[in-house]
Amino acid sequence: MSITSAMVLFAFFFTIMLIYWRPKGMNEAIPATIGALIVIASGAVNASHLMDISIKVSGAAMTIISTLVMALVLESIGFFHWIASLLAQRSNGSGIRLFWYTNALCFLMTLFFNNDGSIMITTPILLLLLNSFQLKKHQKLPYLISGALIATASSAPIGVSNMVNLISLKIIDMNLYMQTAMMFVPSVLGLLFLLGLLFLVFYHDIPKTLPPMAVPITPLSFFHHPLQNRSAYDEMKVSENKMKMILLFVLTIRLSLFAASYMHIPIEVVALTGSCVLLGWRWYALKMSPYDVLRKAPWHILMFAFGMYVIIYGLNHIGLSHYVTKLSGLHASDMFSSMFVMGSMLSVLSNLFNNHPALMIGTLALTEMNMDPLIAKAAYASMIIGSDIGSLLLPTGTLATLLWMHILHQHRCPVSWTAYIRITLLVIPLTVVFTLAMLYSWISILFM
Q1: Which of 121, 323, 392, 394 could join 351 via S-S bond, C-beta 3.0 to 4.6 A?
Q2: What residues contact residue 261 under an 8 Å CB cut-off, 6+ apart?
Q3: How far does CA 264 lie from the centroid of its chain?
Q4: Tens of pLDDT along 157-168?
């Protein structure tokens, strides 16, 4: 093994280890940056590669940051407090109804924003709701675990809900519109299947009747929410009608991303415009400076995505994509085997190494397989299922799940790996197989 190969492999495993371990709450961008510097020092990535990486990563990262900024604006004006109040009222004392409503919220949060933002915002909201109902820990688990799984898996239907999906779309030269046309229906069917399995698994733990709320939900209930501050609520004057108008605006921006992709307009331009308009409205109407939101925006995503891609580029340079191609043993003309092999492989790689590097590795390998364009797109769609759903088997499969566990620990409601895996072993493999079957059927009917 050459020195270059050894340095690249060391950088990869060093980065993954630190991301999993996160000593003293270390931000994932730090190990990714250190790993990238080691790869650059090895000579596996040069200046022209770095320029190419910047082009591929910057648009996706800015799109995700912009959608998170919109979520932060909504959080700062009490939008999600309003939603939580509606959930409590609509549940009408039924724990089963609350189960379906909370999972619908997690699905829509990821669809409107992204999986990390959904986890970051909905987890404290769920904890507030469940604590207000004074539920015991075993009664909270159905809502917390199912909410985390649905929130993370819901990034599969549309590529814009997950940063690594957006980066991979650029690699494979597939627009957001085409990806959604292929993925939306099969993925939603898969999510419904997953939710049905979760309901069956948790049925005996879900309280059939909810006790009266011990503490009513008010805006100040969210004072300890990680995205909130008290002064924002002291000056909050947003009516229910305005909340609905804001929701309509966010939906319009979200739909505009697909229109922009179809018309070959950079989607980050639309996302940035939407976040700036929402920030400007809040500043003008509520006299709330953009500073608090811009300070809390996850700018580190840029460094994390750039660093991880540099590392994967280095791995590709030393022949990883060629090895993955040989390992898959695919026949370029067989769509069925291509889809199931790549979907299964990405599920395994994501759980071993996290779905961010796994999907990048798989996508780069896919570009070297000389497949028919339709089969390549179908194989890519199956990799998304492995990366976004199959990765949920272990907590290390996605950064969103690691973030979820960290938030629960901060709120003194930890979920052990054993409790998590005991559920995911029952539901995730079946869901991956079912969703891949739906995807194959959907593509066979409409695209062949």
Answers
A1: 394
A2: 175, 176, 177, 267
A3: 24
A4: 988 888 888 888
Q: Which two tokens stand for residue 20?
A: 């999993």
| Residues in CB range of 366: below 8 A, 6 or more apart | 172, 342, 376, 379, 380, 383
| Residue carrying the six token digits 């992204």 | 114
CA 398 to the chain's CA centroid: 8
Q: Annotate 103-139 with b (16+ C-beta within 10 A) or e (fewer).
A: bebbbbbbbbbbbbbbbbbbbbbbbbbbbbbebeeeb
pLDDT of 241 higher than 80: yes
Which strand (E) or helix (H) includes residue 140? helix 137-153
Report CA Rg, the chain: 22
Please tell me the predicted confidence (pLDDT) of residue 216.
62
| Residues ≥6 apart with Cβ < 8 Å to 344 | 386, 390, 432
Euclidean distance between CA atoms 217 and 131, whole angstroms: 11
Which pair of tokens denotes residue 145?
A: 């675990």
Q: How far apart are CA 191 and CA 187, in angstroms?
A: 6
pTM of this prediction exceeds 0.70: yes
Which segments within 189-263 are labelled E, that is strand? none
CB proximity list for 389: less than 8 A, separation 6 or greater: 153, 156, 190, 194, 347, 428, 431, 432, 435
Q: What is the mean pLDDT of residues 87-110?
A: 91
Using DSSP, state whether 107 is helix, strand or coil. helix
Region of 134 (left: φ > 0; alpha: ψ -120 to 50; beta: rest) is: left
Q: How many CB atoms lie within 10 A of CB 66?
A: 23
Q: Which two tokens stand for residue 58?
A: 């910057």
Q: What whole-number distance in Å separates Cα of residue 50 and Cα of residue 73? A: 33
Half-sphere exposure of 366 (CA within 13 A, CB side): 33
Tokens linked to 90: 């609509």
Ramachandran bin of 372, using left for φ above 0, alpha for ψ from -120 to 50, beta for the remaining angles: beta
Residues 6+ apart with CB under 8 A from 252: none
- C-beta separation of 108 from 150 below 8 A: no
| Arithmetic mean of pLDDT over the chain | 86
Both tokens of residue 149? 């799984």
